[in-house]
Structure formats: C-alpha cells, structure tokens
Design brief:
The complex is a heterodimer of chains A (265) and B (642).
Chain A lengths: L3 E11 L6 E12 L4 E5 L6 H9 L6 E6 L2 E2 L7 E4 L11 H5 L1 H5 L4 H14 L15 H13 L5 E5 L7 H18 L2 E5 L3 H7 L2 E6 L4 E7 L2 H5 L4 H6 L1 H24 L1
Parallel strand pairs in A: 3-8, 3-9, 6-7, 7-8
Antiparallel strand pairs in A: 1-2, 1-4, 4-5, 9-10
Helix pairs in contact in A: 4-5
Chain B lengths: L1 H6 L1 H30 L15 H18 L2 H6 L3 H19 L3 H4 L3 H18 L8 H22 L6 H23 L8 H4 L18 H22 L5 H19 L8 H21 L7 H22 L1 H9 L2 E6 L4 E5 L7 H12 L16 E6 H8 L3 H5 L17 H9 L7 E6 L1 H29 L1 H14 L4 H12 L3 H25 L3 H9 L4 H38 L5 H10 L3 H29 L7
Helix pairs in contact in B: 2-3, 5-11, 5-14, 7-8, 7-13, 8-12, 8-13, 9-11, 9-14, 12-13, 16-27, 20-21, 20-23, 20-25, 20-26, 22-23, 23-25, 24-25, 25-26, 25-27, 26-27
The chains are: A alpha/beta (265), B mainly alpha (642).
C-alpha cells in the first residue's frame, strides 16, 4: 500500500538577519491512505506550502520523517507529481512536448509517448492543441497542460500548490470539476493547497485547517462534498445548508487566527 | 559601361537627387496623412504608437542622403556641372588681384601704408621713452635722439603728397587706367569669346583626381581667364612701385651715416660688458625700425585712393558679371566656395572632407572590382570575392603529419640501384601533408572576408567555451566563485588596451586578432549565459525534478533553453563589440581587412576611401544585427511571453 505517512514532522528555519528561529511546522502527524483527496487550508504563514514542498522532496525535514509506502522521502521523485500555481510550463516547448517531458527524460520510445500524450491531452480537454506553443494558451489551458504533464508520468501522489489561484471564477469551477473527475477516474492520492474555503470544501475528502506559529494542524474534517460533486453540479452543492454551515465555521476559525496574528504584531 | 557611368556621374546624381526629393515629399505627405488618421487610435505614451511607420524611415533615409548630397556639393555638381569651372576662372582673377587688394582698404580695412606709419611711429615712441640714460653719454644721447627724429621725418616725407615723384604718380595712374580698362572689358561681356578645344576636351568636374577642370570651358570663363592674366601683369607692376623722392633718399643717406657713427663707438666705453650689451641692443632696435622704412613702401594716402576705388569698382563688376553663379555659390556650395591655390582650383568647404555620394560609389566600385590587374581591389587583395581553395590545403592544415607515423609499417628507403619506391605510408604522408591534389572548393576571399573570418572564428570559440562555462557559473557555487574573479578582472579592460600585448605575443596576423576578439566574445558570452542560467524560475526547476529529470537533463532541457534569450542577446552584443575591436586592431597592425584599408586611406588623406570603409563597416554591422534579430525571433518566439 502506498499510503503517505507523516511522523512527528518538524521544520525550523533560521532567519538570515537576526538568527531568530522560526518554527514553520511543528509535530505534524497524519496518514493519508491511497486514493484519498486532501485539501489544506490556512492563513498565510501557516506552513502549508512548506508541508507540500517537503512531501515533494524539495525540502528536508528538521526532524521526523515522511514515508510514501515503504520508502522514506529524501528528495524529489517521479512518483510524486507536482502542479504549480502558474503552471511552470516550459515555454520553449509545444503543448505535447511539455506533456511528454517526463517520458522523454525516461527515454520512452516515441510511439509510446505519442499514444500516452494524446490520451492525456484528450482527457484534460486539449485534444488538437498538441502543436500549440504554450505561451499562446490561456491560464486555464496552461493549468490543464500542467495537469496532463504531471499525470502522464503516472505518479502515486499528486501535489497541487494553489493550482487554481490565478484563474477567473468560471474557469476555476470547470477546473474543479476536472480535478474531481481525474481523481475519480485515476484513483490517485491528491493533496491540494488552497486559499479558497469553498474550493477546499468542494475538493477535499479530508480537509486540514492549519494554524500558524508554530505551523500545525488545527482541525481536521472529513467531508462528503467531493463524492457528491461527482454526481451533481458544484453550484448546487454550494447552495446546501450543511455546506454553508461548515464554510462559515471554517471562515470564522481562519478569521480568528488572522485576528490573533494581527493583534500579536 | 563603368567608364560611361563614371564619366556621367553628375547626370546620374541629378536624376537620383530628383528622385530623393520626390521620395522625401511623398513620405512626408503620406506620414502626415497617416498620422492624422491614426491619431485617435492610441493615447500618447502607448508603445503601439511606435509600431510601423516605415514611411518615416524612408523620409529619414532620404533626408540623410539629401543632406549628404548638399554638403558634399553633390547638388551643385549635379545641376550646375559647369559652375565650378567658371568659378575657378573668377577665383583666378581674385588670386591675381590679391597682392593689390592686400595693400588697400577694400582688402584689409586700412591702407598698408597707414598700417606701416602707425606701427613704426608707435615703435619709435616706445624706443624714445625707454632710452637708457645710464648707458650713453650726453653726447651720444644727442646723436641717437637725432637719428630717431630723422626716422620720424622720413615717415613724414613718404606721407607728403607734394614730395612724391611725378614718375610714380604717372605709374599709379597708368595702373588705375589699366584696371578701369579691365572693368570695361568685364562690363562689355563675353560675346564672341570661344573656349579652346583643349579646354573643351577636359574631363568634367569631379571625374579626374584634380576635381575641377582648370581651363575655361565657357565664354564667360574665357573672359575671366583673360582678365586674370592681365591682372597678374598689373599686380606685378604694382608690386615694383616704390615711393622714393630725393628728400627721402637724402634723409636715408644721412641717417645711415649717423647710425654707423654711433655703432662704431658702442664698445668705446669704460663701463662693463653688461652696459655694452645694453648699448648694442638699444642701437639694434633703433636701426631695425630705420631699416624697415628705407625701402619706400609708404605712399601718401590720397595717391592710392584712385587705385582703391578702381579695384572696388572692378570687384563689383566681377560680382555683377557672376550673375547666377553667385547665387549657386552661396546656396549650393557651403563653405568658402571655389578657391585657387598656386596651381589648381579646389573646393573650399564641407566637400573637402565629405566626398560626393556618387564619388563614393565610384571609389567603392573600383575597390569591389575583383580584377586586380584592372586596378581593382586594394593593395593586391580583393574586397570580397571567392578563390579556388585546393582541398589538399585544408587536409594538410587539419590532418597532423604525426598521425601517419602511428600507422603500422615503415617509410620507404632507396633501394640498391638508387631508386625510391614509395610505400603506402609514404602516400599517406603526402596526403597528410596536403600534397595530393583532390580538386578545389570555392572559398571566400578578400578584405571583407578576412575581417568577417576573424570575427566569426573568434565568436564561435567564444560561444563554444563561454556558454558552457557561463551556464555552470549560473548553477554551481564552485564555478561561480572560482571563475568570477578572473573574468571580472580582465573583462572591464578595454580590448584595445590588450591589443599591444596580444599582438606582440601572437603576431600581427590572424592569430593575434582572433585571440583578442575571442577574449572580448568570451567574457560577454560567459556573463550572458550565466545571467540566463541563474534566472531560471525555481518552479520550472522543481517541476522538472518532479518529472524525473536528472541534473544533466535539467541543464540540457531546462536551463539551457531558458538561458537562450540571454545567450542570443549576448551574441548580438558580442558581435557588435568584436566588430568594433577588430577594425581598431586592424588599424594597429596587419595587411588585410577593412580597418587596414581605412588606416592606409588615413595616411594619404583619401577621404573618399575613408568614407567608403566607414560605410562598409556600418553596412556590415547593420547586416549582422538584422541577421541576429531575425535569428532571435525565429529561435526564441516565446521571448517576453513566458
């Protein structure tokens, strides 16, 4: 089983100027089962991006460890795909070349690559855009390319760092549905970091609300909205009373945290 | 064909100038019209307002060319091809008149006599005031003051109209008569005069190296040429005139005797050497003033009035006879106009250092002619052509002879009967040495190619070595810190400061220049590649790590393409700087190249050639840059859009 297990994870930074020690994360413990969809929310500075970077292997923990299946995470790996806020596409390559980047690095034969790339472009709704330069795409389409580029590598775990943050409301809603569909069809484990409470509720099968100073998991929810979202429109779900109730609860929670930070300054 | 074009260059210029004026007016009209239409499309400051507008580029080019034609007197030559020849004849008259005019107020405000009187009187005053009483006895003082008084009265005698001799007066009036006669001749015009055949056979203005034809080619020119000859005679006569009345002769004789008397006794004193020095130098200054006055060059003012008036009238008449020529001179020949020196007429003005566009093209055509026997090329090398390069030469250059030594077997020996039968190894050696003929390939040749070759070789070495180093410096702490001091230390030194050293070490031929240019290109390429590599977005690097790329793959597939815009900008800058450095290096040393041509042209003040080389360099630089811009837009269409 390739579950993600997080054991007593701590991360401290030393500020470059005065040498003050900042506890970005402290004693994080959780287990994410294969196929679970986790969304992480929290006020700015609560360490959610740090957590994601550590799972991706870009940062090494100060203490504690992260395990994916039987392996301890020590660096970036192809089994953990990452989708960035701005897409981070290679603008010198066309859409299909971007998507098959990982496959080319693995020296997969061209014919197999083409088959996979075409399949994934079709899934993310970009069939026929293979030869388009990426700088000619809109923001939403660029994010679709980034998704396809990540998924074509068949990772066990997909990490998304505010993937829809830079998109307009309509595109955002479409992309949310796309993510849910991909989750359902591939059964991948997904971690999404987001600023939007609604997005976290809609996409999160599990949801962590994190708190700052030191960065920690403040509260965990288990929700059914993601499963419902696969059957009905996301807009209908947002209208539901229980959705609104949880949303207000979390908003108040985050609001209080922000107040606390501001008051502390 | 070429001869015909060369001979008719002024006519061709006339057509070209007309075309330019029409183009200029049309482009202004079109530009203003378009501006009026598009005015509302963008607000002021919108970068879109600078796009397009090729008609203004046409306007700018036409303006530059017209200014060039104008200031090089190209317009004057195109539309008034005979003007310079006629003005040359008038210049001859002025040159002949100049000795007379120099003595008169019309030439220099005062009579020369007036100047002499004023200057000598002033000096006499000074000398008298500074008389060294201690150095002379009372007796001597009396003698010396007498000499000064006599010198003053000499000036007075010269200036007295009553004492002037009758012969001098009649000579002066004859001169006045002659000048008035010439004035009348100018007034009566040039009817009936015909230029000689020799004059008409001259090449037109600007075709020969002498530029302006000397012999008069028009009736008016013939008239002025004749006047000039007569004026020369009158001038000669005028210059022999002296004002030497008897009274003056007597005064000069007496004063000379007095001066001798004093001078003979200068050392007859009991005082020391220093006093003797004072006595001698004082007498020397007294004598100097006297000697300037003993040649009869001062005339009474009113005796010269008539000459002054007659010359003034004559010059007025010359200007009147010039007619339209005067306007052409003033409008189309910026500068002092046509001037006659001792033997030739020259263009005195901006056209002295700014050759006419047509002449520049003619010089360029000669230079570009690949046939050296016909006088093409420069110093035995063509400008840009091709030659047949034997392939064996290339092989001989690239394949080292020692490679053959490694082959198995041995070289041949002469046998018992004194023959030599080459083995296969001997054949291989001949091949490696480039002695086996294998046909030829066409290869570029000439001054321009030599310059280009140096730049291209240096650039390719600079790119091949500089880009990898720069990229590693962009990603590695060791590479950055280890190489940074070296590169940053030599880079700020102007390349030409290295030149003397490099040329000494590597020689003045290609090696030295190529190395110098390599140094320039290398530093620029390292810095641009480094900037490009270190500017890669972290998220892209992280994404490629997550996609399973190895470090080497990230360098090749992410960092290199990401740095490509910076690298190409670096290439563009490096080519420009290399080009500038090369020309300067060629001016320092060498026997081929565009800079070499200019250096030779400089030493012989061949302005046309200098301008030709400047234009060649400018056009080649422009070509490089346009090519690089095109290359950049093809290779990195994503630039500024990532």
């Amino acid at each position: 089983m390739s579950d993600l297990v997080c054991n007593d994870l701590c991360m401290t930074f030393t500020a470059p100027g005065n040498g003050a020690v900042v506890e970005a994360l402290k004693n994080i413990n959780f287990t994410l089962k294969k196929g679970e969809l986790l969304s992480v929310l929290g006020p700015s500075g609560c360490g959610k991006t740090t957590l994601l970077n550590m799972v991706a292997g870009f940062l090494n923990p100060s203490s504690g460890d992260l395990q994916l299946g039987d392996n301890t995470i020590t660096g970036p790996g192809v089994e953990r795909g990452m989708v960035f806020q701005q897409g981070a596409l290679f603008e010198w390559l066309t859409v299909s070349k971007n998507v098959d980047f990982g496959l080319r690095m693995k020296n997969m034969p061209a014919a197999d690559r083409k088959k996979l790339v075409d399949k994934w472009l079709d899934i993310v709704g970009l069939a026929g855009f293979g030869d388009t330069p990426t700088y000619q795409l809109s923001g939403g389409m660029q994010q679709r390319v980034a998704l396809a580029r990540c998924l074509v590598n068949d990772p066990d775990l997909i990490l998304m760092d505010e993937p829809l943050g830079a998109l307009d409301a309509l595109t955002r809603e479409k992309m949310q549905s796309l993510i849910l569909e991909l989750w359902k069809e591939t059964g991948k484990t997904i971690i999404i970091i987001t600023h939007s409470v609604e997005e976290a509720l809609l996409l999160g099968q599990r949801l962590f609300v994190m708190a700052p100073r030191p960065g920690r998991i403040h509260k965990e929810y288990r929700l059914d909205f993601a499963a419902e979202g696969l059957k009905q429109s996301l807009r209908d779900i947002k209208q539901k009373d229980d959705f609104a109730k949880v949303r207000e609860e979390i908003l108040t929670m985050i609001w209080d945290m922000e107040e606390e930070i501001m008051g502390g300054v | 064909m070429f001869e015909w074009i060369s001979y008719h260059r002024s006519g061709i210029a006339a057509v070209v100038i007309l075309g330019l004026v029409i183009t200029l007016l049309w482009s202004i009209y079109h530009g203003v019209k378009t501006a009026r239409i598009r005015e509302k499309e963008q607000v002021f400051g919108d970068p879109e307002r600078t796009t397009g507008g090729w008609y203004w580029a046409v306007c700018g080019v036409a303006t530059i060319l017209l200014l060039w034609f104008y200031y090089s007197w190209g317009m004057a030559r195109a539309y008034f091809p005979k003007a310079a020849n006629e003005l040359c004849q008038i210049a001859k008259v002025h040159e002949s008149l100049s000795p007379i005019v120099a003595q008169l107020p019309i030439g220099s405000r005062y009579f020369k006599s007036t100047d002499l009187v004023v200057r000598n009187n002033e000096q006499l005053d000074d000398i008298e005031a500074s008389f060294p009483v201690d150095a002379f006895s009372a007796q001597e003082e009396k003698q010396i003051r007498g000499i000064i008084t006599q010198t003053r009265s000499l000036i007075a005698v010269y200036s007295n109209p009553d004492s002037i001799e009758a012969a001098t007066v009649s000579s002066l009036s004859m001169i006045v008569n002659d000048i008035n006669g010439l004035t009348d001749r100018i007034k009566s015009g040039s009817a009936g005069l015909i230029p000689t055949e020799a004059a008409l056979a001259q090449s037109p203005w600007g075709v020969t190296p002498e530029e302006i034809p000397m012999l008069p080619m028009t009736p008016r020119g013939v008239m002025f040429d004749g006047i000039a000859q007569d004026v020369t005679k009158i001038s000669k006569e005028f210059l022999t005139l002296r004002n030497m009345p008897d009274a003056a002769n007597q005064l000069i004789k007496n004063t000379r005797a007095d001066i001798k008397l004093v001078k003979d006794n200068l050392e007859n004193t009991s005082a020391g050497d220093d006093v003797i020095d004072i006595r001698q130098s004082y007498m020397k200054s007294v004598e100097r003033v006297f000697k300037r006055l003993d040649d009869g060059m001062i005339f009474p003012a009113n005796t010269l009035d008539d000459v002054n008036t007659s010359v003034a009238v004559m010059i007025d008449e010359i200007n009147a006879a010039k007619g339209g020529l005067g306007i052409i001179d003033a409008l189309f020949m910026p500068g002092a106009g046509v001037v006659k020196t001792r033997t030739i007429c020259i263009e005195q003005g901006s056209s002295r250092w700014l050759p006419k566009p047509t002449d520049v093209i003619a010089t360029f055509s000669t230079l570009a002619n690949p046939n050296i026997e016909e006088g093409g090329g420069f110093k035995g090398t063509r400008l840009l052509w091709f030659k047949w390069l034997p392939i064996s030469d290339v092989v001989g250059f690239f394949v080292p002879d020692s490679l053959v030594d490694i082959l198995p077997g041995s070289y041949g020996k002469h046998d018992d009967v004194g023959r030599f039968v080459p083995t296969y190894k001997d054949h291989m050696l001949a091949f490696a040495k480039g002695e086996v003929y294998m046909g030829s390939i066409p290869m570029l040749d000439g001054h321009i190619w030599d310059s280009l070759f140096r730049v291209l070789v240096a650039m390719s070495f600079g790119i091949m070595l500089g880009v990898p180093l720069g990229i590693y410096m962009g990603v590695s702490r060791f590479f950055k810190s280890f190489f940074d001091p070296m590169i940053e230390l030599y880079r700020p030194v102007p390349p030409l400061a290295w030149a003397p050293l490099i040329l000494t070490i590597f020689g003045i031929q290609d090696d030295g220049k190529i190395f110098l240019l390599f140094m320039v290109a290398f530093a620029i390429m390292v810095i641009s590649a480094r900037t490009g590599a270190s500017g890669t977005q972290l998220s892209k690097i992280r994404a490629s790590h997550s996609l399973g790329a190895s470090n080497r793959q990230i360098l090749r597939h992410v960092i290199l393409p990401n740095a490509l815009p910076e690298i190409l900008t670096g290439v563009r800058i490096a080519i420009g700087v290399c080009w500038g450095t090369l020309v300067a290096a060629e001016m320092l040393a060498g026997t081929t190249g565009v800079g070499f041509i200019e250096n030779v042209a400089r030493t012989v003040s061949d302005y046309e050639l200098i301008w030709v080389t400047i234009l060649i360099m400018g056009l080649l630089g422009l070509m490089f840059d346009l090519m690089m811009r095109k290359l950049i837009s093809i290779l990195i269409p994503w630039r500024g859009k990532g």
